[in-house]
């Protein structure tokens, strides 16, 4: 299914004269990667299936290959970046799995390689999706969302002023958190998967599954509900396409919203906030980790919320939708890992209905939300809390049952 999706996205991108995710990922075997950290994070994820000696050799090989690439680029006066080595080592392990491994060992190594490649390709897939949203959705719904956001007190405008007041220190800190979200996810995932090398099997449910599904389904919502964000629609980044240069000083006035034409470059990637959804997933999966990782998960969620709002990338109602979106996907996958648990499925359906209700309300009742904030503001928050409450109640009811994250039996891997 994953290969079919990538092939379809590659074909769609070609129709719009854009490089697809497969092409862009293949280019990074030779050309400078956009960022090396996600590629090394993918390599780290793959190495959970290796022994300690194999990990040292793999990491050393990746660093050695990158050193060679850096030397060539230095002589050629090209952009100095790293990450090619990690991709080459991941590919080498795929070759080893197919030619030197058999049975369970081959399947286990291929699973590790598959997770690594999926995580690496997810970034390219997201970039391609965003370009497609800009090309295929000439009009955006920012006026609807900005109007609805009055019910929550225009939090992007408030947090934007706070972040600006923190100066360069706060800006650089939040930007680092925002851009390296996948690396934080890998750290939590590696802890969850730390027993794979010894058990020779993967747990049934872990963070990577949720992370990838959020990234797979989210852009589809972007296509249905295209929004560019306040810093573009109401700020300097929007250029002459912006309604006015209002963000973050002056919230937009309340009035009947309309579809708003925008350029063919800016991604329509606001509704829901996937960064919030991913940070929520990291927070959830860090709860059964050591104190340091629990603290990191909490910090990453809070800092991500600050970045998404403070940089003007999202409205407040996007954040609410992102939390509901993440919890719905998480409980669905968690329930599926337990064997389609009834209580889990009921919670997932509740989350899906709340998510749909939120989007319909933002789209068709934004003026009512703005004019009656004391009704709609608490209602939106209560709906989100209801999903959180159902999620907590369901997962707590599972705690006394057999572990849903138990290891997959070896016989299952061999079939």
UniProtKB/TrEMBL annotation:
Its main location: membrane. InterPro entries: Aur1/Ipt1, DUF5933, IPC_Synthase-Related. The chain crosses the membrane at residues 29-49, 56-76, 82-99, 177-194, 206-225, 292-313, 319-335, 347-365, 371-388. Keywords: Membrane, Transmembrane, Transmembrane helix. It holds the Pfam family DUF5933. It comes from the Bacteria. Residues 2-132 form the DUF5933 domain. GO terms for cellular component: membrane. Residues 156-328 form the Inositolphosphotransferase Aur1/Ipt1 domain. It is found in: Membrane. It is a multi-pass membrane protein. This is Inositol phosphorylceramide synthase.
């Amino acid at each position: 299914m994953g290969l079919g999706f990538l092939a379809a996205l590659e074909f769609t991108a070609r129709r719009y004269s854009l490089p697809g995710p497969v092409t862009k990922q293949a280019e990074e075997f030779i050309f400078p990667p956009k960022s090396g950290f996600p590629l090394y994070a993918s390599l780290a994820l793959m190495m959970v299936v290796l022994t300690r000696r194999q990990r040292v050799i793999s990491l050393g090989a990746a660093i050695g290959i990158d050193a060679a690439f850096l030397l060539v680029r230095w002589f050629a006066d090209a952009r100095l970046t790293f990450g090619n080595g990690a991709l080459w080592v991941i590919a080498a392990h795929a070759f080893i799995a197919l030619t030197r491994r058999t049975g369970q060992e081959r399947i286990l190594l291929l699973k590790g390689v598959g997770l690594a490649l999926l995580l690496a390709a997810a970034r390219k897939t997201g970039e391609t999706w965003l370009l497609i949203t800009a090309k295929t959705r000439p009009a955006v719904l920012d006026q609807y969302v900005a109007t609805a956001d009055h019910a929550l007190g225009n939090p992007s405008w408030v947090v934007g002023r706070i972040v600006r007041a923190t100066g360069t220190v706060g800006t650089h800190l939040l930007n680092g958190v925002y851009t390296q979200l996948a690396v934080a996810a890998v750290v939590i995932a590696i802890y969850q998967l730390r027993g794979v090398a010894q058990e020779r099997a993967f747990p049934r449910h872990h963070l990577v599954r949720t992370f990838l599904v959020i990234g797979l389904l989210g852009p589809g919502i972007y296509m249905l509900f295209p929004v560019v964000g306040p810093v573009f629609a109401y700020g300097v980044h929007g250029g002459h396409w912006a309604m006015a240069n209002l963000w973050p000083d002056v919230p937009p006035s309340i009035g009947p919203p309309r579809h708003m034409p925008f350029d063919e470059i800016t991604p329509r990637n606001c509704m829901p906030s996937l960064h919030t959804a991913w940070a929520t997933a990291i927070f959830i999966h860090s709860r059964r980790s050591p104190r340091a990782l629990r603290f990191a998960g909490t910090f990453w969620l809070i800092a991500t919320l600050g970045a998404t709002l403070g940089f003007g990338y999202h409205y407040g109602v996007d954040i609410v939708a992102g939390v509901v979106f993440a919890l719905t996907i998480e409980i669905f996958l968690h329930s599926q890992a337990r064997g389609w648990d009834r209580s889990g499925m009921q919670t997932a359906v509740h989350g899906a209905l709340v998510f749909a209700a939120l989007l319909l309300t933002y789209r068709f009742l934004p003026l009512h939300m703005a004019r009656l904030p004391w009704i709609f503001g608490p209602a939106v928050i209560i709906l989100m809390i209801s999903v959180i409450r159902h999620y907590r109640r369901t997962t707590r009811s599972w705690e006394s049952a057999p572990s849903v994250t138990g290891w997959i039996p070896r016989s299952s891997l061999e079939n």
